[in-house]
# Entry
Amino acid sequence: MEQLNTFGRYLKKKFKTKVSKIPLGLSGFTCPNIDGTVAKGGCTFCLNDSFSPNLVQNTGKIFLNLQSKNNPILKKQLQELDEQIVNTREKMRKKWGSQKFLVYFQAFTNTYAPFETLKALYDKALTYEDVIGLSIGTRSDCVTPEVLDYLAALSQTKEIWIEYGIQSVYNETLERINRGHDALNVEKAIKEAKQRGLNVCGHLIFGLPGENQEMMLTSAKAAYAWGIDSVKYHPLYVVKHTLLANEYMQGEFEPISKEEYIDTLMKAIKLKPKEISIQRITAGIDDGTLLAPAWCGLPKNTILASVRQALRKEELVY
Ligand code: SF4
# Structure
């Protein structure tokens, strides 16, 4: 049996202790694909609070007009950041014995704000002695050279990751899900981050409308070739009150089955260069907002057990 290169193992090897990611959801952040800058309505599958446990209600574009360091939204964000780090860190210490932490700016687009605001938030997170670095979730069309340069400077002494949603390398799919950028944009952003020595995690979704398995695996291969250091694989699920929910209700889209997802995942993992670590192999939701497929509403451990069983057949251990 071969142990897969999971992100947990990568961090443990590097920092010689258990390192966990603390997810943040700060008020004030939004997304250019939601607020109308790039597009309106966001990606068709997106109901942001469906995957951001710490999300606090966002205040939209108002935030972007407040450049001052002393603006009330930033003050609130810094306070939320403190509370979320302290509370989540404590839980992770108790649950998993975690000793070091990576602060994960998760909800919405975490480079979509004035540079001084971003700097204040990133710097604040790094003031915690046991925080060894940051992971910044964002969009490939929303990173400036100034932010990338700053993150690259931080990476001289800290573990810095940038996470891009790749989802698919097919432009027709990206258009269909109202992604607001094309595949070339993601490829360029990944390469620009890599040129600065930053670590990059790419997110892939299997089961997007109109895609077959060959297309999903082509996206995975392209993402690996672009130089990502880590990957998150997700099945597409339909959440109520999204544009995708309308497509689903009108019969325009068939959600991926558990069997097809696991089969695609096994193939994607076998195609993956070993040095690319895996941060996520599935995703589910249990807050009552799921419409389909039903298997994504099963307890996380039940889904993971099926994935682990399939991996064992491949002589692999997650
Ligand atoms: S980029 Fe992220 S936050 Fe923005 S609409 Fe798409 S999924 Fe939602």
